[in-house]
Amino acid sequence: MTTQTNGSPVTAISKTPLWTGRIVSGLAVSFLLFDGVMKLVQPTVVVESTRQLGYPESDIAGIGIVLLVCTLLYIFPRTSILGAILLTGYLGGAVASQVRVGAGWFNVMFAVMIGVLVWGGLWLRNIRVRTLLP
């Protein structure tokens, strides 16, 4: 057992859940980074799909920057909880956008599943989240 700087005891996470959490988080981060970069590069498919959701082309880069910043916050251990909270808001907006345009269940559930991976991976690898969300 180790202690935090404030003196409260913290138990270590065993290797299996720690590495499982890293892998799960890595899957979510890989998708989110890819999506964010694609919003900056703006290939035709991204521009068309964003327009179908009702957003102007001029907003795509800003959305990509927000996604990349939130994902980077999630990657670093000191800011991972803040990053997860911000990604939850981002993904909630994605779900709302998909529902608003009447997209199929897969499009809606995909954003929900990325959110589950974000929080599941964080829960597996972060003792502070485990104590808050038993």
List keywords for this structure.
134 residues; 2 strands; 6 helices; elongated; mainly alpha; two-stranded antiparallel ribbon
Structure description:
The protein is mainly alpha-helical and 134 residues long. It is 75% helix and 3% strand. It has 6 helices and 2 strands, in the order ββαααααα. A two-stranded antiparallel sheet has the order 1-2. Helix 1 crosses helix 5, helix 3 (60-75) packs antiparallel against helix 4 and helix 4 runs antiparallel to helix 5. The longest helix has 27 residues, at 15-41. It is elongated. The mean pLDDT is 92.
- What percentage of the residues does DSSP assign to strands (E)? under 5%
Helices and strands, in order, run as: EEHHHHHH
Overall shape: elongated
Average pLDDT reading: 92
Radius of gyration: 17 Å
Q: State the helix count.
A: 6
Largest sheet: 2 strands, antiparallel
Q: Quick one: how many beta strands?
A: 2
Alpha-beta classification? mainly alpha
Identify the strand order in the major beta sheet.
Answer: 1-2
Unreliable stretches, pLDDT < 50, 5 or more residues? Answer: none
Distance between the termini: 19 Å
Proportion of helical residues: over 70%
What's the quick description here?
The chain is an all-alpha fold.
Strand-helix topology:
Elements (H helix, E strand, L loop, with lengths): L1 E2 L5 E2 L4 H27 L2 H9 L7 H16 L4 H21 L4 H21 L1 H6 L2
Antiparallel strand pairs: 1-2
Helix pairs in contact: 1-3, 1-5, 3-4, 4-5
